[in-house]
Amino acid sequence: MDSFGDLLFYLVIETGFLKAALVVNLLLVVVMILTLMERKISAWIQERHGPNRVGPWGILQPIADGVKFFTKEDIVPSHVDKFLYIIAPLVSLFPALVTFAVVPFGDQMTVNMFDHLVTIQFQVADINVGILYIVGIASLGVYGLIVGGFGSNNKYSMLGGLRSSAQMISYELPMGLAIISVVMLSGSLRLNDIVTDQSSLLAWNIFRQPLGFIIFFVAAFAETNRLPFDLPEAEQELVGGYHTEYSSMKFSAFMISEYSHIITASSLVATLYLGGWQIPGLAALNLPIVAEQLLQILAFIVKTSFIIFIFMWVRWTLPRFRYDQLMNLGWKSMVPLGLLNVVLTAAVVAFF
Amino acid sequence: MLSIPVHYFLILGAILFGLGVVGVITRRNAIVIFMSIELMLNAVNLTFLAFSNYLNNVEGHIFVFMIMVVAAAEVAVGLAIIVAIFRLRETVHVDDIRLLKW
Amino acid sequence: MALESILFWLFAMLAVGGGVGVVVHPNPVKSALFLVVTFFALAGEYVLLMAHFVAIVHIAVYAGAIMVLFLFVIMLLNVQEESRLAGVWGFMRYFSVVLFVALFVQLGYFGYQGFFGAENVPLVRETEIGTVEQIGTALFSQYVLPFEIASILLLTAMIGALYLSKQKLGLGEPARAARVKEALHEKEEAH
Description:
The structure holds three protein chains of three kinds.
Chain A: H1 2-14, H2 17-45, H3 61-71, H4 82-98, E1 109-113, E2 116-120, H5 130-138, H6 141-151, H7 155-186, H8 191-197, H9 205-208, H10 210-223, H11 235-238, H12 248-273, H13 289-315, H14 323-351
Antiparallel strand pairs in A: 1-2
Helix pairs in contact in A: 2-12, 3-12, 4-6, 4-12, 6-7, 7-10, 7-14, 10-12, 12-13
Chain B: H1 6-26, H2 30-55, H3 59-89
Helix pairs in contact in B: 1-2, 2-3
Chain C: H1 3-24, H2 28-48, H3 52-77, H4 88-107, H5 109-115, H6 132-140, H7 144-166, H8 172-190
Helix pairs in contact in C: 1-2, 2-3, 4-5
């Protein structure tokens, strides 16, 4: 018993292996839910019914979609660059899944497990340069699009890849500037410290950094390639852009990565600007620690879901930008505003 | 973290630097030459970090930081020059870009 | 073999393989993608050297920005595979091998010393100098002047790049129009 407990302890706690596997799988399950949510919300906005055939209210639709994707013929067109064509969906999926590793979804708590006093962190990896990690990994998402666009050997795909590379570079700058302001306020690159810094409602960064919040939010739309910034895949102009040539599971991998990007971006907005897992005034209630913990995780989920809902709401409400408008917005409005925000924040931090 | 000799990193840096030099000499595409220069810069970065670790001194990290700044600036200007040349001559093949002024 | 050694050899092989790919692959887009692989492997080596901050900045700057810019320009200019390596440059291919060996021997000299006959080989040590706090403290105290100059350099580069891409190039509109006319004429003759 003792050795088994020790082994389990090692596997579960020391390596964090189980936690990582759990989080990745949860992420994929949430992606499934999101595909249904997206269709239901679009139906609601456009006054349709949406999917309602598979299961009650159509809730089994994602499973039907999955089966469809798996059983479709996996076509590799003859004119593509085989290696790049096959590797592109994986390259696109990888950063979308690993970015979530540093997002804290609950306070750390200490429990007694198998006679070990264990501190459980509700976060896969608590690294001290967490924010930099996110900026670094998030910027890799574009490679999937570029590689897919180039490997497809198709002019529409190529244009999609070209557009996405320019778009990503342009919108990473304002995103980084917004993040710098947050980091200056909290004085730490660790995401957990940024969350604990926003302990009361008025200390939430959305109230301390309203401009930064808007910049980050808009940049997050551009980074996830969602409408109004979905120029790399614009159906009307590029017939689907970088994933024109893809079918079955490879296409599905692109979709999964898009939705995982949305989840990660939303959780980041919640973490950086909406206080993460914090509920203002919860400590005053003196609840038992487990209840408090569960409430905090629930708070994180609710905040993230709300941001995801806004993502979808915007998609089905706003039309797409033209390419020059996108660049003008990025370079002539967002970057100067981001710089202004950084300067203002620095002045406030220095003089107050 | 204590099992790797420092000089392994130096040898790796030397190999990468040599590869960068070979790329600069043999390739005729201006953009690929640029990329080979980036490779050389990164080999130097690796060497700086290895020595920084060996001497337990933070200055190597500072130097790497500065090299990254210079590389970023160099790429921005260099690629702008390449695009300008392409607009003028419709080639990036360095053998076709022999005349300083035309 | 310890985990670190395995990782070191894995990353080293990836880095060298990527470097060879950059140099020998005729297609510039593939060359750029090989360079991305090399940068990733190098970031791994930086982590093994206890330089976590530099490793992550390296990924964000090189893989995230510089290489995307490279790919953008290559795809924008639609650069084709290069075939020509004529004249004196054909000879350079052989010369470059000699140069590679010479450079490797020169640069790797310290490494060779470590290989042969040294009793206490210096190992990578566990240090705190690679953390954000240490580098930040050094950058903003002792090296604050270089830091500021670096910012001016970046500003200069930004303005220079803007100027280069905004500028009307030497040919001017009439010459360009004449060239287009000429091209059209040639096309007609060909038909």
